[in-house]
Specification:
By secondary structure, the protein is mainly alpha-helical. The protein is 61% helix and 7% strand. The chain has five helices and four strands; from the N terminus they run ααββββααα. The protein has helices at residues 10-50, 52-75, 105-117, 120-136, 140-147, and strands spanning 78-79, 86-87, 89-92, 97-100. Strands 1-2 form a two-stranded antiparallel sheet. A two-stranded antiparallel sheet has the order 3-4. The longest helix has 41 residues, at 10-50. It starts with 9 loop residues before the first helix and ends in a 23-residue tail after the last helix.
């Protein structure tokens, strides 16, 4: 082994290597952070220059306007189902089915159309009447006359003119 001042031993190199590695790691970390900061500044500047912030504000206004319009649809009596409005329904326990909420403008308007084109109300009334007659009759001849061939004819009648939906007063 030489005793020269110019000679660098393994132990010294190991320590110098650790020191240099630590310094480089710190410098790299600092450079990464600085680059990240510069990217954020560059992105913010691009957003500002290209007017993206104004576009985002417009989108926000449109979102609020959309919410107001959806609320208006619901006030009229519709359930807004992701762009497919349907007349709002409620559960009817007597029929075990959902039915239109009759208190809404939407249901009232739809019922006007139905009343003009179907005889559902008459058919329901006839059912009650026929069943009453059946239970009150005592002779076979009368029962045969009431029952007939056992088929109920469903007849849809049309309104004199096409039913018109009226504008809501809201």
């Amino acid at each position: 082994m030489k005793n020269s001042v110019d000679f660098v031993g393994v132990a010294e190199k190991r320590e110098l290597s650790k020191l240099l590695e630590r310094q480089f790691d710190e410098a790299i970390t600092e450079a990464v952070n600085l680059e990240r900061e510069l990217c954020q500044k560059a992105e913010a500047e691009a957003l500002r220059k290209l007017g993206v912030q104004m576009i985002m504000e417009e989108i926000s206004k449109l979102d609020r306007q959309k919410d107001v319009l959806i609320e208006r649809i619901q006030e009229l009596g519709f359930d807004y189902n992701h762009g497919n409005p349907r007349i709002a329904t409620t559960w009817n326990s007597s029929s075990s089915d959902s039915v239109w909420k009759k208190s809404t403008d939407a249901a009232r308007e739809a019922l006007k159309v139905l009343e003009g084109t179907t005889n559902l109300r008459d058919l329901k009334a006839e059912k009650v009447s026929i069943l009453k007659k059946l239970w009150l009759s005592t002779s076979r001849k009368e029962v045969v006359r009431i029952v007939g061939n056992g088929k109920v004819m469903v007849k849809l009648h049309s309104a004199g003119s096409a039913p018109q939906l009226t504008a809501s007063s809201n």
